[in-house]
Design a protein that fits this description.
- It is a single chain.
- The protein is an alpha/beta fold.
- About 35% of the residues lie in helices and about 25% in strands.
- The chain has 12 helices and 15 strands.
- The protein has helices at about 40-45, 55-70, 80-100, 120-130, 140-155, 180-185, 205-215, 225-240, 285-295, 315, 320-330, 355-360; strands spanning about 1-10, 10-15, 30, 50-55, 105, 135-140, 155-160, 165, 195-200, 220-225, 245-250, 260-265, 300-310, 335-340, 365-370.
- Helix 4 (about 120-130) crosses helix 5 (about 140-155).
- This is Methyltransferase.
Length: about 375
């Protein structure tokens, strides 16, 4: 970890710096409290000065919202086409995240937050960061994400296909978009293959592994390259009493051996993630998608199938064409024997104010049934 330095009460101070988005420690840090105006805070943050908050916690949240409103006064401009509009949107969101990320808080040696009206964040921070390692400075936006993740982990996400809740961990993509889970729950299982072994590649929370186990597979191997996802999948398998049927392995993309069914729900958008938390949505250059397809045929048992769950949002944004996708499938020695489609049900598909509304409104999520050629 890096170190952040500031002056407080005429004394030099320092602490460890942590950023899930890999932001470098700010070179200029000013102490701020309830007396600072939103215009002043916004101006300093835009100039690159970080503000270490020493006032009331709820006032800090209000200041963050006020700074966000000032940024949002200038909405991202639309490009000449969907791809340019997407990149301009991502650039604007990145600028917004950087500016708001300059409002900082100090976690004490035990992960506690020494601010007026501050909540007890020790458990939430321990879940996200592990055991405390000394005073640490993080952005308030990151802390709010940690708190939100703790609440999701505690109450879970209802998954109708399971008749149960999945409990996402911090940094693991939550199955809030249930249409892709429903596709796996309803698709016809391979006819010529058995129900002995299934692989869930890039398992995340383990939700698809749980669906496959509930559908009758005796042995489901769930993999992921993220240690947080592996811990999350194991936790959910235990909560669902499926540890005897779900084996979590990794960090790796594929496990050893062959399977009657190999399922993968890779990140849908081939763009560079701006933080570790975005890896569930953005796949730089479509690297994971290509790796899955390239390695799939060698992992299929005789008569087995691979199920690729993929949205066409990237196609609608001009980031990938259907022809390119089909070419990658063919080059991997695979052919598609069927495809099941569904429409998204999430609120953003109906948000006409979203710069990407046209693409989101027409989006289709598909389950591609693939076999070796």
């Amino acid at each position: 970890m890096s170190t952040i330095h500031w002056t407080e009460n005429n004394s030099p101070r320092s602490a460890r710096w942590h950023s899930e988005s890999a932001a470098p420690p700010p070179s200029r840090v000013a102490v701020a409290d309830d007396g600072i105006k939103a215009d002043t805070a916004h101006g300093l943050a835009c100039e690159g000065t970080a503000l270490l908050w020493r006032g009331d916690f709820h006032n800090a949240r209000q200041l963050l919202r006020a700074m966000g409103r000032r940024i949002d006064r200038k909405p991202p401009r639309r490009g000449d086409g969907p791809a340019e509009s997407f990149h301009l949107y991502r650039r604007a969101r990145g600028h917004r995240a950087r500016v708001l990320g300059r409002l900082l808080v100090l976690l004490d040696e035990d992960h506690s937050l020494d601010l007026r009206r501050a909540p007890d964040v020790r458990q939430a921070c321990a879940e996200a960061y592990g055991p405390p390692t000394g005073p640490t400075v993080i952005s308030l936006t990151e802390l709010l994400g940690v708190i939100g993740a703790h609440e999701w982990r505690t109450k879970g996400v209802e998954v109708p296909a399971l008749g149960a809740r999945i409990h996402p961990h911090y940094g693991v993509f939550s199955p809030v978009r249930g249409e892709y889970v429903d596709l796996v729950a309803r698709a016809t299982l391979p006819v010529s293959g058995g129900r002995r072994t299934a692989f869930d590649v890039g398992t995340g929370t383990g939700v698809l592994a749980a669906v496959l186990a509930r559908r009758g597979f005796a042995h489901v191997v769930a993999t992921d390259i993220s240690p947080r996802a592996l811990a999350c999948a194991r936790d959910n398998a235990r909560r669902l009493h499926l540890t005897g049927r779900i084996e979590v392995r990794g960090p790796a993309l594929f496990p050893e051996g062959h399977a009657d069914l190999v399922v993968c729900n890779p990140p849908w958008v081939p763009a560079r993630p701006n933080s570790a938390l975005e890896h569930g949505v953005y796949d730089s250059g479509g690297a994971m998608l290509r790796s899955f397809l390239d390695g799939l045929a060698a992992r299929l048992a005789p008569g087995g199938e691979g199920w690729l769950i993929l949205s066409d949002l990237a196609e609608r944004l001009g980031l990938r064409t259907r022809r390119e996708l089909l070419a990658v499938i063919e080059a991997a020695g695979l052919r598609a024997v069927d495809r099941a489609d569904t429409r998204p049900r999430h609120p953003r598909a109906r948000d006409t104010g979203d710069p990407l509304h046209a693409a989101r409104a027409g989006e289709i999520t598909s389950l591609w049934r693939l076999v070796a050629r």
